[in-house]
């Protein structure tokens, strides 16, 4: 038996959340895994060390989709550390076709799908389909004991599957990418604005806030808004939209519920779910 069998700890830390790079740590107090590895490899390693986790304690990386801000470190993680990469068939194909990640070690791929759970470091993981302009993108529902966490990022709309798993979770990590007025009045091209606004683009502050307010329950101990745009959002606007939706829906928050907008360029605190 290993030490991992003797801990019920469920830790979460955002190592970076935004278009500059996305990666999240899930652990049991001894070892764990990453959701995405979109930061520079050395940056990723330093952020993990700052919460007391050496890279050798990372038992795998589960990948939401093949865009570079989610896979930047895969070459290093697989070539140097021989780290398993759990990805759908479509996502793995996209990784191999990405010129920034094409040197990934093929033997490190662990195929996953949305029909079967898998386990890493004592956590049970279920992938579910999401709506984004990538090849077979997914979100993840992660359980350990009686606690659960659901991450849904890079989604144009909250589909049926994402909604199902978000409603079940104690910890919700939901994209709140942009403020609509900032995006429309901003410097992006019309084509890029339309992509972001589309059903396979990104989720805006109001839609994220509305979903959380309509589906909040006291079991929802942690609410993390993720993947905020540098150009078209601020943490203050994202949180303001959520608090306004909570007021309008007359939601009574449990006093211990934690609500944060995850930082873009540095790690968050380490949270125990």
Q: What secondary-structure arrangement, pairings included, does this model have?
A:
Elements: E1 11-16, E2 23-27, E3 32-35, H1 41-49, E4 58-62, H2 68-71, H3 74-79, E5 85-87, H4 89-96, E6 109-111, E7 118-120, E8 123-129, E9 138-144, E10 147-152, H5 160-168, E11 171-175, H6 180-184, H7 190-197, H8 205-215, E12 222-226, H9 235-248, E13 258-261, E14 271-272
Helix pairs in contact: 8-9
Structure summarized in a few sentences:
With 273 residues, this protein is of the alpha/beta class.
CATH topology label = Metallo-beta-lactamase, Chain A
The whole-number mean of residue pLDDT values reads 95
Biggest sheet descriptor: 7 strands, mixed
Query: Strand-and-helix sequence, N→C?
Result: EEEHEHHEHEEEEEHEHHHEHEE
Tell me the number of structural domains.
1
In whole angstroms, how far apart are the ends?
A: 24 Å
Share of helix, binned: 25-40%
Overall geometric form: globular
CATH class: Alpha Beta
Unreliable runs: 1-5
| Helical/strand content category | alpha/beta
Tell me what portion of residues adopts beta-strand conformation: 15-25%
DSSP strand count: 14
- The radius of gyration over CA amounts to 18 Å
CATH architecture: 4-Layer Sandwich
CATH superfamily: Ribonuclease Z/Hydroxyacylglutathione hydrolase-like
The strand line-up of the biggest sheet is 6-5-4-3-2-1-14
Number of helices: 9
Describe, in plain words, how this protein is organized in 3D.
The protein has 273 residues and is α/β, with parallel strands linked by helices. The protein has one domain (10-272): Ribonuclease Z/Hydroxyacylglutathione hydrolase-like (Metallo-beta-lactamase, Chain A). It contains 9 helices and 14 strands. The protein has helices spanning 41-49, 68-71, 74-79, 89-96, 160-168, 180-184, 190-197, 205-215, 235-248; strands at 11-16, 23-27, 32-35, 58-62, 85-87, 109-111, 118-120, 123-129, 138-144, 147-152, 171-175, 222-226, 258-261, 271-272. Strands 6-5-4-3-2-1-14 form a 7-stranded mixed β-sheet. The protein has a 7-stranded mixed β-sheet with strand order 7-8-9-10-11-12-13, with helices on one face. The longest helix has 14 residues, at 235-248. The protein starts with 10 loop residues before the first strand and ends with a strand. 47% of the residues are buried.
């Amino acid at each position: 038996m290993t030490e991992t069998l003797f801990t019920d700890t469920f830790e979460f830390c955002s190592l970076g959340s935004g278009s500059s790079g996305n990666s999240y740590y899930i652990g049991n107090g001894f070892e764990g895994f990453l959701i995405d590895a979109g930061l520079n490899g050395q940056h990723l390693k330093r952020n993990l060390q700052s919460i007391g986790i050496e890279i050798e304690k990372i038992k795998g990386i589960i990948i939401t989709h093949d865009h570079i801000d989610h896979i930047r470190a895969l070459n290093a993680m697989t070539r140097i550390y021989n780290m398993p990469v759990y990805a759908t068939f479509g996502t793995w194909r996209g990784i191999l076709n990405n010129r920034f990640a094409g040197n990934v070690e093929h033997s490190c791929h662990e195929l996953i799908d949305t029909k079967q759970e898998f386990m890493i470091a004592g956590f049970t993981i279920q992938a579910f389909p999401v709506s984004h302009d990538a090849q077979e993108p997914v979100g993840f529902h992660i359980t350990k004991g009686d606690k659960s966490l659901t991450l849904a990022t890079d989604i144009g709309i909250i589909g049926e599957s994402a909604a199902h798993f978000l409603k079940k979770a104690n910890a919700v990590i939901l994209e709140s990418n942009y403020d609509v007025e900032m995006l429309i009045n901003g410097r992006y091209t019309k084509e890029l604005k339309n992509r972001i606004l589309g059903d396979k683009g990104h989720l805006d502050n109001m839609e994220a806030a509305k979903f959380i307010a309509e589906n909040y329950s006291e079991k929802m101990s942690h609410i993390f808004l993720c993947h905020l745009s540098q150009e078209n959002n601020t943490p203050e606007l994202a949180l303001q939209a959520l608090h306004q939706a909570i007021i309008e829906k007359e939601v009574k928050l449990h006093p211990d519920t934690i609500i944060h907008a995850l930082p873009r360029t540095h790690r968050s605190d380490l949270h125990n779910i």
